[in-house]
Amino acid sequence: MATLSGVGLARFAYTALMPQMVHAGWFSGEQVAYLGAANLLGYLLGALAAAPLAERMGALRVLLICWIAVALSFAGCSLPQPMAVFFVWRLISGMAGAVLMVLGPSVAMAAADPSRRSILGPLMFCGIGVGALLAATLVPMFARTSLSAVWWSLTVLCVMALWTGWCAARQISLHAPVPASPVASAPAPSASLWSAAVVLVFIAYACDAFGFVPHTVFWVDYLDRELHLGAGYASTQWAFFGLGAIAGPLCAAYCATRWGWWGTTTGAYIVKAVAIGMPLLFASFGAHAVSGFLVGALSPGMAAITSGYLMQLIGPSRHKKMWGYATAAFALLQATSGYLMAFIYAQTGSYRQLFVLGCVALALGAVLVASSRLARTAS
């Protein structure tokens, strides 16, 4: 429920709503782009604040507060208001969503039986895709009534998630949180924390943060308003993204078992680069569906895959510290990308350049990950 609320609804519901807000006359295209970036800035702040807040107030109490904050942010967006006020609500949504994403899986993994953690990890991140799929369903359904009805439906859905998650959270016996990441089968290596291979993978993960923003923030608006394909078409394509985000975490562990962490990580970056670039070359329903599904699968899936590869490189004992650095870098590059791409769109009036940037960023990431094997061998 934390991943469903934290990213599936708090971020991805807004993606489905962007063109509707322009059509309703609430904001211009440039304004909704900057408001989309506001959530990414909030995510950066929330990711940095999650651990200190949990230490000071307790993880369960912080989770409850953030669930309430996400619901309030939806309710606060239910009426037309100045952009500055809306910006604050989207910022709060991003901050609270990030805390839910950081603490929710950690709390669940700490409470789970060790033998079940390898299964639980992928299942938890399926909530991201479920949230996106629900948004793709609810937005066009309630948009026929009014935009306010959409925001209130999301508020009710978030309250339901809050109640379900809180009832479950109160029943668990909480121990020290553990990182929610796949377990690599390789023994802990003796290389330094910042070996050349680790640095290459670290930078590649930052490239992923920069490159996946066009699909996760601007995809629906691009299909609806720039390509003039309509709200129904764009919502259907967003549903494919959600389906991919459900499937991605489930496939990550299988692929790593089948092809190893290096092969899976390299392949994931290549596939994601191609998927982000597909809309630039193909404009059919099938091409859009494949593009959205693959990027959706490799949004939560990429975190699991990269985390597993890093664990293989540095071992479990040092993984938590490194993954904290990687998560902070991801949030920083994601927020930077959001504002840069919003600025580019405001200057050009087109999203196409953003998909070029995203494709190049993931291609660079693929080269870096592929090179990590050579760097590891050389060291």
User: Mind telling me the C-alpha Rg?
Assistant: 20 Å
| Poorly predicted regions | 174-191
Shape: globular
CATH architecture group name of the largest domain: Up-down Bundle
Terminus-to-terminus distance: 42 Å
Relative helix content: over 70%
Q: CATH homologous superfamily of the largest domain?
A: MFS general substrate transporter like domains
For the largest beta-sheet, the strand count, sense and barrel status come to: none
Structural class computed from helices and strand pairing: mainly alpha
CATH class of the largest domain: Mainly Alpha
CATH topology category name of the largest domain: Growth Hormone, Chain: A
Mean pLDDT: 84
Polypeptide structure, described:
The chain is 83% helix and 0% strand. With 379 residues, it is mostly helical. The protein folds into 2 domains: 1-177, Up-down Bundle (Growth Hormone, Chain: A), CATH 1.20.1250; 181-379, MFS general substrate transporter like domains (Growth Hormone, Chain: A, Up-down Bundle). The longest helix has 51 residues, at 231-281. The protein is globular. Residues 174-191 have low confidence and may be disordered.
